[in-house]
Amino acid sequence: WNHSRKHSAWGSDWKAFVYWIPYMSSFNELPLSRSMQSNLSQLGYSEPTQVQAKTIPLAIKGKDVIAMAKTGSGKTAAFGIGLVEGLNARHFACQGLVLCPTRELADQVAKSLRQLARAKQNVKVLTLCGGVAIGPQIGSLSHGAHLIVGTPGRIQDHLRKGTLNLDHLRTVVLDEADRMLDMGFREVITDILEQAPASRQTLMFSATWPDAIRQMSSNYQREPVDVRVVDQE
Ligand code: ADP
Ligand code: MG
Questions:
Q1: What is the rounded distance in angstroms from the CA atom of residue 199 to the CA atom of residue 189?
Q2: Where is this motif: Q motif (predicted)?
Q3: Which residue is closest in CA terms to ligand 1's atom 24?
Q4: CA spacing 20 to 30 A to 128: which of 114, 137, 159, 221?
């Protein structure tokens, strides 16, 4: 045991560290409410996927997480379960924001969040994407929403107009972060993150791990826990 070994093991510029949690085979072993447990079994989710088993306990504790896992590994519920569990449905303010690269993905995520949100009463999930008129979105926002899923450009538009308020945001999720950066959304995303409360939790999901992702993580996450799933089920 010596100094150099410590440095080579963790790296000096790399804040994240690999967090090994024994694979859990049941949602019952995760710290979830009974209503979420029964909702998951109604949805036919009997076992957590690996990225879910590793991410959910951290997300529920409020940790920042950067998770790398392939398409189809269940990343939506990996962040969605914690988003729903953590929100106060009686507080009609945006508590969770999910940024997605495309409208199609945002619609899919919103659909999953609505299913997961059956564990609570009266949770409103709103999608805000470009390519459609902004007026009706402003109308929907005026009625309030607990969870918002959208594409970066349109979220930025609403922040500029003052039609979306992030003062009560608890968690921001970058879904398919690598794809969003490939599409040129880096500056828009950083603008949104700069406007989110400093105390928020930031969860990043990516299929690959380019430098731009690491850089965004080190700039906008606090002591992020690195979750990597190598073997997919
Ligand atoms: P990713 O975002 O990693 O590509 P998704 O979140 O879209 O993956 O999930 C892929 C599919 O797996 C979806 O149809 C989802 O409903 C399903 N799924 C997710 N988690 C579970 C689970 N624990 N048990 C069974 N099916 C699941
Ligand atoms: Mg996904």
A1: 17
A2: 25-53
A3: 45
A4: 221
Look up the pTM and report it.
Answer: 0.90
Q: Which residues contact 141 (CB under 8 A, 6 or more apart)?
A: 126, 128, 158, 163, 164
pLDDT averaged per 10 residues in sequence order, the chain, 233 residues: 44 46 72 96 95 96 96 96 97 98 98 98 97 97 97 98 98 98 98 98 95 96 94 52
Q: How far is CA 106 from the centre of its chain?
A: 12
Rg (CA), the chain: 17
48 lines ligand 1 (CB under 6 A): yes
**Residues 98/26, Cβ–Cβ less than 8 Å:** no
Domains of the chain, residue spans: 14-228
For residues 109 and 102, the answer to whether their CB atoms sit within 8 Å is: no
